[in-house]
Amino acid sequence: MNFSQLTESDTDRTKLFMENNPSLKLKAELLLNWLKEVGDLDEDATLDDLIFAGDYYYMDKFIVEGMEYVIGDEDDVRRSCEDYLRDIIYSEGINFFNKDFLKSHIDVRDVKNYAEEFFKEDIYNYPEAYFDDSERMFSRKQREQLDILFMKMSRLKRSVQQFEQRKDGPNAEWFNKKISEFEEIIDEYSMEITEIQDDPEGDFPDELMDDMLDTKLNEVNYDPWNYIEAYDVNWEQFVDEDTLVEDAIETDGYGHFLAQYDGEAHEVYADGDLFYVMRID
To answer: For the whole model, what pTM was predicted?
Structure first.
């Protein structure tokens, strides 16, 4: 029903709503009785002193002598508080909440999944940032060079062994000279091999990068917040909004968020059913 189309007085309009909505009338009666109990209304006050002012999330709002109150059952209030907090998050951002409280609601699985994608790309595309050059494999060209050098060294060493067996014979001088020449060449090959081995130019082994990925993910799993801060990641995307809202309500209560006047949520009962009354202005 559109209030702007009504011509009745506020009181008549409220009566009309109550006649068509027993639940609304019950809430009005509960509010009226509570206001009398706390002394905010005279004992002779009646329902005529309450003006129905529409919805407040899932609760009903009444104006009493210029003051605004809302009332609803526990389900109404719970849903109202959840929607209120989600509206706050949407309008003001997640930083409305205390940072330490937010940190306790980081979804580690989301962080780890994000980190896995990040490290997969970073480690495999920029491995030099994670490993020392000495951990590289040899390039194809270097492997070919090493194969040739080792082969030449092996041949020369066999020749030296053969010549060693003959160096005491009639041609000892010639054999000794050849042995010296071969040993010099072997030393040169050995130096070339060492230079190549000390400066590998190939890729890093896949096993090495796989191990590094596992290490990084274990670190994230152990301390996700350290990863977030170390890599300057937008951590807000990892906050589990559902558990955040639930825990905020459990921690601070309905009144803290909905009762904007004094932060108090007052319990009233009707036949054992729990309702909450809050002043919002």
So the answer is: 0.64
